[in-house]
Automatic annotation (TrEMBL), chain A:
The keyword Electron transport does not apply. GO terms for biological process: transmembrane transport. It is found in: Cell membrane; Membrane. Pfam families: ABC-3 (PF00950). It is a multi-pass membrane protein. This is ABC transporter. It comes from the Bacteria. The chain crosses the membrane at residues 6-29, 50-78, 84-107, 119-144, 171-198, 210-231, 237-256. One of its GO terms (cellular component) is ATP-binding cassette (ABC) transporter complex. Belongs to the ABC-3 integral membrane protein family.
UniProtKB/TrEMBL annotation, chain B:
This is ABC transporter domain-containing protein. Residues 6-232 form the ABC transporter domain. The keyword Transport applies. Keywords: ATP-binding, Nucleotide-binding, Transport. PROSITE patterns: ABC_TRANSPORTER_2. It comes from Agrococcus pavilionensis RW1. InterPro entries: AAA+_ATPase, ABC_transporter-like_ATP-bd, Metal_Ion_Import_ABC, P-loop_NTPase. It comes from the Bacteria. The keyword Transmembrane does not apply.
Amino acid sequence: MTLDFFARALLEVTLAGALAGLVGVLVVLRERAFFTMSLTHATFPGAVAAAMLGVSIPLGAAVAAVALVAIAVGIGRIRSQGPAVASGIMLTAGFALGALLQSLGPLAIDVESFLIGQVLAVSGADIALTATLLAVAIVVWALAGPHLVFSSADEGGYRRAGLRPWIPETLALALIAATVVAIMPVVGAILGVALIVAPAAAARLVVRDWRAMLVVAPLIAIASGVLGLLASRWLELAAGGAIALVAAAFYGLAWIRAEAARRPRGTIETRTP
Amino acid sequence: MSAPVVEIADASFGYGGAPVLSGVSFEVRAGEAVALIGPNGAGKSTLLAGLLGLAQHEARVFRVPSARGEIGTLPQSSEIDPAFPVTLEQVVAMGRTPRLGLKWPGRADKRIVADAIEAVGLAEHRGARFGDLSGGQRQRGLLARALAGEPRLLLLDEPFNGLDHGSRDALLETVRRLKGQGVALLITTHDLDLARAVCDRTLLVNGRQIAFDETGCVLTLERVEAAFASHVIEIDGHTLATTEHHEAAHHHHHHVLRDDDAAAAPPR
């Protein structure tokens, strides 16, 4: 398959958008936005270390992500330390470690491409990884969707029903971490959170149930990716930044629409006799 | 007589330290409702948690249904964030999840969910967002969720709290119907009249078991006073057990408990 670099980038943002949208629903329903944010920063040292060692960068980021999910689950289980504490520590420690590694590196590493992505330089392997993960995300939602939603909505009820909440929790964190790694080439580590969280958060504002979110969120994320990419071409902007900003703009539009729908029609004077 | 669904002898329940509740021996038969009565902090919730395997227990005999979905529960109030994007039907369908595992719901499952919604009188709200329902409707929705699991044992935690008369009568009717279907029920309540109305036997506790027998025999003034340390009042011929909590929400009908101050106030 020979595609020019722009067609490859279009394919990658479409796949990454669908993936980010599907996994973003999980992030929003389980209120894991801050975890995702810290994960995007904390995979950074893994990517830097991989670049220094000359191995696959997604592999390095994935190793860091697995370690971080284990730490998050571990710290989260300590009663007095909530998941937000674990995420906050991960965020700063990970980013600091990445910066430190980079300063130690003998070679000049293009750190910017990890942080904000380089979608015009995606490889066939990047696309294959995103496509595979998209398939995994679809299968997970299809088979375990009811468990993911039940445990997100009512963890106590899920436990009382004789089910174990740590299983959907671990599944969700693993899927989020894998997604952060897979979309790194598109929007980078720092901007990844925008493509994951904003479309799902926007979808939540405009639809009433999670099944509809699973349709609307990927569509918004794909639209963000494609529009951002086109804008970057026409206006000669950085693609990662443009994509993240379009996703944020979609959230803004959804918020305005939700606010308008909530506001009663007519003024108070015309409504009260 | 039908077989016991729950059989407990010489049991104590707790969370690792000193037991919260000890000396417990009781059973619940299929088609029977047992009231679990005691003041706040008596160990009622710990007992329910123990039956679910969520609190520790030590016992000579400990038999409860153990297959997935065999125990249904109704919490005191909904723990689902009203903003969570689920419909009533999706919440009720959660009741099928333990039995389904990773399988997709079939036609039979969908019918069971629809029947459970129908049974609590919410058929016209099935597509409504769960958080848009009133508190009483949400509580009925959670009861439907418990019913959708087709439980052999149903644990109802203060199910009559905060219900208006209509919802209360509907719930009593549902309890009677479930008994007719052979479901075993364990119901915590502060309302002794409701216990008398639907519960065949009563388990009275306060840190330890005080009595377990036919409801009429257990709920004598002396025993209830022993359990509640004299926090018992009588209004219009109804005996009520009072506690420090659970007040404000229930002043709209005189059956449910009041706190001492509210009870002392003149009737409106």
